[in-house]
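Hi team,

As requested, here is the filled-out complex form for the glutamic acid run. I kept the field names the same as last time so the parser does not choke. Let me know if anything looks off before we queue the next batch.

— J.
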Amino acid sequence: MTVTRFAPSPNGPLHLGHAFSAIRAHDLAREAGGRFLLRIEDIDGTRSRPELADAFRRDLKWLGLEWDEVPAQSTRLDSYREAANDLLRRGYLYPCTCTRAEIEALEPRLGSQGMVYPGTCKGQALDPAKPAALRLDIDRAMADTGPLEWHDVLAGVQAGDPREAGDVVIVRKDEPASYHLAATLDDAADGVTLVTRGRDLFAATHIHRVLQALLDLPVPRWYHHPVLLDAEGRKLAKRRGSPSLADRREGGEDGRLLAAQLRLHRFPDGIALENA
Ligand code: GLU
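And here is what came back:
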């Protein structure tokens, strides 16, 4: 059975790009007679605003979508800790005490996930007295997993190699997981078979594929859809003046009509699909 999901983070209101993504995931499930899941990704303690999750539900309903909701990430912290401890014990993670400023000072190259960590702390042992993030030793991981592949429905088979992103953070200093670990574990726990999300997260999938191999998780397929861009060619964002779905809903706009337009790739003025 096809199981897709929409997994928003409640750190800002949803906008048209989210609507487009949720509708795509919803329709892919429905066309296949499958299930569409909503998962609230609320482990970013400092930026998460719990009241937004309710607004998200109202937005999706207003668009005419129906879903099954799976537990929010904040209720699953134990499963993240368990997986991280397993990876640590097996030598795939190492503690990193570097601050952002310290890493910046080394002028690292930029990769798909931001600054590529130069490996300063590699080999360091865990000191429980010192708060540390845990990074994936990607060379070690890839040496053990061997070549990996993953399948994107739109882009075809990909050779899974996240080395360009370097030793990414798997457990943050202040949270028991990073996005990469939490989303990968949850997609497996939720039985997601088709991970549907924007193409802006394409490169992250290489990392998720390695984590699946290391943690012996089922491997879904992916559907990375093109994302909506504003008139300057940038991803939509509330801070750049893109009206939120809540603004539109509260302004009396017809959500089902909006959803129908998005399905036809008819977008408001100044908004376009990337590479369209
Ligand atoms: N929570 C992520 C976001 O809001 C989406 C993660 C995903 O779809 O894998 O950007």
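Two things worth flagging: Residues 3-75+226-273 form a domain with the Rossmann fold fold (CATH 3.40.50.620). The mean pLDDT is 94.

Thanks,
J.
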